[in-house]
Specification:
The longest helix is centred in the N-terminal third of the chain and has 20 residues, at 2-21. Helices cover 15% and strands 48% of the residues. By secondary structure, the chain is an alpha+beta fold. The radius of gyration is 24 Å and the shape is flat. It binds 2-acetamido-2-deoxy-beta-D-glucopyranose (NAG) (2 copies). Residues 25-114 form the Ig-like domain.
């Protein structure tokens, strides 16, 4: 009987200790809402989370499927960073270089999903003088315009 109580006591303590240390994931580094990068530099997105057990990091693509490695083009590092390697024009892929990613951190306690990260592989950046008529006022303002790589069309955004 004594042995039984002793065992139960130890077991209870063990479970309590374990429980109090279990923690769902929380982002330490959440990726930014936008990433613009040039084909010559490539780009990367950091994502890391704390928790116990240590959460694992995954990336989701636009359709919610898990992002895999594409040799020489896209790679998920072991520390959770998503790398988009420098690429030649011929290797451009719309669903890799101009798309939306989300980071997922999960452990046995729970799962959290980051905000959406809009990724644009960009090429040009220039100043444009823009004239706008707002009511009677005529305003001329320099505006920074980004044009993104899209070999089938030019996409520019203000
Ligand atoms: C992961 O490793 C890469 C390269 O070693 C580094 O650039 C990146 O910042 C690391 N990511 C995190 C989340 O620490
Ligand atoms: C990026 O694209 C430009 C223009 O197409 C090309 O000249 C350059 O070599 C590319 N960079 C890389 C790393 O392939």
């Amino acid at each position: 009987m004594l042995v039984f109580y002793l065992t139960l006591g130890v077991l209870t303590e063990f479970v309590t200790t374990l429980d109090s240390h279990l923690r769902g994931p929380a982002f330490v580094m959440e990726p930014p809402p936008r990433l613009e990068f040039s084909n010559s530099s490539g780009g990367w997105l950091d994502c890391s989370a704390s928790g116990n057990p240590q959460p694992s990091i995954d990336w989701l693509s636009l359709d919610g499927t898990s992002v895999g490695d594409v040799i020489g083009i896209r790679q998920v590092l072991r520390n959770g960073t998503l790398v988009l390697h420098p690429f030649a024009a011929a290797a451009y892929r719309h669903n890799i270089h101009n798309t939306v990613y989300r980071c997922v951190a999960s452990n046995s306690v729970g799962r959290i999903i980051s905000r959406e990260v809009r990724v644009h592989a960009g090429k040009f950046m220039f100043l444009l003088l823009l004239s706008i008529n707002i009511d009677e006022f005529h305003v001329t303002a320099p505006v920074l315009v980004y044009c993104y790589y899209a070999w089938y069309q030019n996409i520019c955004s203000l």
